[in-house]
Structures are given as structure tokens and as C-alpha cells.
């Protein structure tokens, strides 16, 4: 869905007109997979990955996000409204994701991508198979979403 | 891993980003916390849109939306976390123009300054002697300074 919003010069000091589209991936397949998890599996998942599955269920009003993005001030890194500003904080994000930062280590970016053998170990897919599925789209390396969803459904079927 | 690739750290349509898989592995095998990376990527996506280098905003829009929901509207009582609030009492559906009008007319009385689950008394606003907090994401590193804002 695309929503384009023109800024009203009267109501704001930022007169630029921005066309923003929010990238929306199809989440239906992921939601289905999430629902196939048993309650123990869900609990284990939540402990490590926080409330990601809950977040996945939220029906996002994309026009709200696009309109909010218009109020973003890149110099101040905050959202500016008529008479106040709001800032996204780490503390709020840890609440949303339900992953307390205290006592833990934050993500550290590594120069090297994860190796295929590591991925193969986690996914139980043969390294050669993984290698053949790897694609590059507009300069971004990755795997087609469909491939993993089909694979995960097969795993879930086996368990059933 | 797929959840990370297409939902938490989206990059391209229908693609599980290899970089996002790296965050997943860090969380799974090294027990690292992805919150700072998600926030860094959200700021980076907003920055990129405003620099007009990218028109498509690739970030975890659900987190951003839940954040918004937790800050607007009436005080949330009886909800354990912001996600539960967004699931059970999200804002009424509005179109693009309605949201635009809503934000233009938003004043400080309509904002939740202290959501009920915000119980931590201290906030992270600097890193050692440095006035900024560095946030490391999948696509960039940014400085974050809530004091300035």
C-alpha cells in the first residue's frame, strides 16, 4: 500500500514534500507458521527473542507510519509536532520487544557475514543447497522468503 | 531467522536479508540483545528517507507503530505491555489524509508522557564520557542523543 502525503507549509516549518513508501513484506506466511508453534515452543521462543511473535500479530496502519515519518527531523533525530517533540528511546523499544537490555550484551556488528556452514548447522539444510538458494537483489544478498516458508512448513508437517 | 529477515530487519521485498540473519545468529548463539540494532535501523531508515536517497522506508514498521500507539490516545490501564495495548486497543482506522490532519493537530495534552509500563527510573543517555550513545545496526552505526531532543 502506498500513501503519499504532502506537508502543509502552514502547520510546520519543514516545507519539503516527501514521498515515503513503507516496505511491507507479506507476513501471512509467517503468522501462519507462528500459529503452528505449540505453547511450550512459543514460551521458549519468547524467552530468547522477546515479543516478536506478538508484534507480528499487530495490524499496522501504514498511513499512520507514513504520516509520522513526515514529522521526523533528521538533524535532531526526533519527531517534531506543533508544540513538542517526541523521541524514540532504547527504553521504549526494549519494552515493545520485551527484551531487557540490563545485564546483557548489545548486538555487535561483525565485518564478515555469517558463514554458510554456520547457517547450515542452524537450519539443518545442506551447505551446498543453501549456497544454490542464495540470491542478490538490488545489491542485497539474501534468500527468497518463499523458500524458507515452504521449508518451515515441511518441518512443521513432519512434527505433526 | 525468517522473522528477522522479513519482519524485524526488512531490506528488500520477499527477501530474507543475509545481514539480518547475522543478527539472528548473534542473538541465538551469543545471546546478544537486538534492541539497539532495531532502533538504529529505524533511525537509519528515517534518515535515508529524509535525505531522499531512498523512498522506500525499510524498518520494523510494527515496532514504530506500537511505539506511536503507546504514546497517543488515552492512558493505558490494565495492559501489560505496549504490544498488548496495540493488539487490544489500537487506534481507529484512518486514511492517509486523516492521519496527516491528526498529527498536525496533535498537542501535548493528547500525548502519554509517562506510559504505565515505563518503570525504569534511569535512562541511557550517554556512553561513558561521550555525550552520545552509539547504536549499531545492520546497515549503519548512528549516534543517539535523547538529551538533545
Compose a concise summary of this entry.
The complex is a heterodimer of chains A (about 160) and B (about 150). Chain A is of the alpha+beta class and about 160 residues long.
3D architecture notes:
The complex is a heterodimer of chains A (160) and B (149). With 160 residues, chain A is α+β, with helices and mostly antiparallel strands. Chain A has two domains: 1-105, no CATH class; 109-160, no CATH class. Helices cover 46% and strands 12% of the residues of chain A. Chain A is built from eight helices and seven strands; from the N terminus they run βααααβββαβααββα. Chain A has helices at 28-36, 39-49, 52-57, 62-70, 90-97, 116-123, 127-133, 145-159, and strands at 21-22, 72-73, 78-80, 85-86, 105-106, 135-137, 140-144. In chain A, β3 and β4 form a beta hairpin. In chain A, α1 (28-36) runs parallel beside α8. The longest helix of chain A is centred in the last third of the chain and has 15 residues, at 145-159. Chain A is globular and about 55 Å long. Chain B has 149 residues and is mainly alpha-helical. Chain B has a domain at 1-60 and 133-149. Chain B is built from six helices and five strands. Chain B has helices at 2-8, 18-30, 35-50, 61-71, 82-88, 96-104, and strands at residues 15-17, 32-33, 56-57, 133-136, 141-144. A two-stranded antiparallel sheet of chain B has the order 4-5. In chain B, α4 packs across α5. Chain B is globular and about 40 Å long. Chain B starts with a helix and ends in a 5-residue tail after the last strand. The model of chain B has no long low-confidence stretch (mean pLDDT 82). Chains A and B meet through β1, α1, α3, α4 and β4 of A and α1, β1, α2, β2 and α3 of B. β7 (140-144) of chain A pairs antiparallel with β1 of chain B, so a sheet runs across the interface.
Amino acid at each position: 500500500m502506498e500513501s503519499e502525503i504532502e506537508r502543509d507549509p502552514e502547520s510546520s516549518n519543514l516545507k519539503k514534500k516527501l514521498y515515503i513508501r513503507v516496505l511491507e513484506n507479506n507476513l501471512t506466511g509467517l503468522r501462519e507458521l507462528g500459529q503452528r508453534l505449540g505453547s511450550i515452543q512459543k514460551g521458549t521462543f519468547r524467552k530468547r527473542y522477546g515479543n516478536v511473535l506478538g508484534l507480528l500479530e499487530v495490524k499496522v496502519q501504514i498511513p499512520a507510519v507514513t504520516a509520522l515519518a513526515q514529522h521526523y527531523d533528521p538533524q535532531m533525530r526526533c519527531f517534531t509536532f506543533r508544540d513538542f517533540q517526541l523521541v524514540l528511546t532504547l527504553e521504549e523499544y526494549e519494552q515493545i520487544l520485551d527484551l531487557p537490555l540490563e545485564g546483557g550484551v548489545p548486538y555487535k556488528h561483525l565485518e564478515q557475514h555469517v558463514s554458510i556452514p554456520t547457517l547450515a548447522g542452524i537450519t539443518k539444510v545442506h551447505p551446498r543447497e543453501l549456497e544454490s538458494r542464495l540470491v542478490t537483489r538490488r545489491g542485497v544478498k539474501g534468500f527468497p522468503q518463499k523458500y524458507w516458508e515452504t521449508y518451515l512448513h515441511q518441518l512443521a508437517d513432519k512434527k505433526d | 531467522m525468517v522473522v528477522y529477515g522479513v519482519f524485524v530487519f526488512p531490506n528488500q521485498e520477499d527477501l530474507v536479508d543475509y545481514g539480518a540473519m547475522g543478527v539472528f545468529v548473534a542473538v541465538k548463539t551469543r545471546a546478544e540483545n537486538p534492541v539497539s540494532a532495531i532502533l538504529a535501523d529505524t533511525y537509519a531508515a528515517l534518515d535515508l528517507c529524509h535525505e531522499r536517497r531512498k523512498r522506500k522506508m525499510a524498518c520494523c514498521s510494527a515496532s514504530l507503530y506500537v511505539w506511536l500507539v503507546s504514546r497517543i490516545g488515552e492512558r493505558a490501564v490494565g495492559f501489560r505491555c505496549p504490544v498488548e495495548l496495540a493488539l487490544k486497543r489500537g487506534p481507529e482506522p484512518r486514511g492517509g489524509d486523516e492521519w496527516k490532519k491528526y498529527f498536525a493537530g496533535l498537542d501535548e495534552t493528547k500525548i502519554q508522557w509517562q506510559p504505565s509500563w515505563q518503570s525504569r527510573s534511569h535512562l541511557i543517555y550517554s556512553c561513558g564520557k561521550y555525550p552520545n550513545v552509539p547504536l549499531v545496526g545492520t546497515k549503519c552505526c548512528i549516534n543517539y542523543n535523547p538529551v538533545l531532543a
